[in-house]
Design a protein that fits this description.
8 strands; 239 residues; 9 helices; globular; alpha/beta; 3-stranded antiparallel sheet; TIM Barrel
């Protein structure tokens, strides 16, 4: 997040839970069976468990997950599990409390650790730890995160630091992100823009086109390889 903060969206521009549910239902009817709720931080959305309950009720979803910074997870883990969430990814770039606080602009690492424990306790398996690295998993912070994850029985994914404008990205170690030849993902932003690739300025308005047409168009024009994104930032289109 920028140090100076971000410009907030007007509430009327943000998709309602019903709109997200309708889009997801149509996407699943077209063959999508894996859904991830991400952000920003999804747990700050009011009544987020209601959205999870709506989506989990859609027949055909085989994998319903969430990516969270973990700060509020100890409060929500049980509710999320009961609402139908299957598993969780938690972002931890350092297990040094001071460094973690600097990276996250004030985040409390103990709250994240409590969120990991709560997720394991309620059965949000597998719990995956996302760790952003400068280059690779041999860096000191990455090694320490790996040791922590293994001590908890969590999986760990190392994500190379990316730059949308420069078009720099790499393959995720321990996952399959960043592999353009295998990518079949679509991203729906909070304001209803469907993006076939994060590293592209292409976006389709589902409110104007309708969900099915937007999905069909997005699939038809999905770039073969990621390039540059000059119209968005990770904090407003998601990581």
């Amino acid at each position: 997040m920028p140090q100076e903060g971000v410009k907030l969206l007007d509430h009327s521009k943000i998709l309602t839970f019903d709109e997200i549910e309708d889009f997801t239902r149509i996407a699943v009817s077209m063959g999508i069976d894996k859904v991830r709720i991400t952000g920003g931080e999804p747990l700050v959305r009011r009544e987020i468990t209601t959205l999870i309950k709506k989506i989990s009720a859609i027949s055909g979803i085989k994998d319903l997950s969430m990516t969270s910074n973990g700060i509020l997870l100890s409060q929500f883990a049980l509710q999320l599990k009961e609402a139908g969430l299957m598993r969780i990814n938690i972002s931890i770039d350092s297990v040094d409390p001071v460094k973690y606080s600097q990276i996250t602009r004030g985040g409390d690492l103990d709250m994240v650790f409590n969120g990991v424990d709560a997720s394991l306790k309620v059965g949000l398996y597998p719990v995956k730890i996302n760790c952003v690295v400068d280059k690779n998993s041999d860096e000191p912070d990455a090694i320490a995160v790996s040791h922590y994850a293994k001590s908890k029985g969590c999986e760990v994914r190392f994500i190379p630091k990316m730059d949308l404008e420069k078009g720099s990205f790499g393959v995720v170690e321990g996952g399959n992100g960043g592999e353009c030849t295998k990518c079949n993902r679509l991203r729906l932003t909070p304001n209803g823009m469907l993006r076939p690739c994060l590293f592209s300025d292409i976006e389709l308005d589902i409110r104007k086109l309708g969900s099915q047409k937007a999905i069909e168009k997005a699939l038809a024009i999905k770039p073969i390889k990621g390039g540059h994104n000059n119209s968005g930032k990770f904090y407003n289109i998601g990581g």
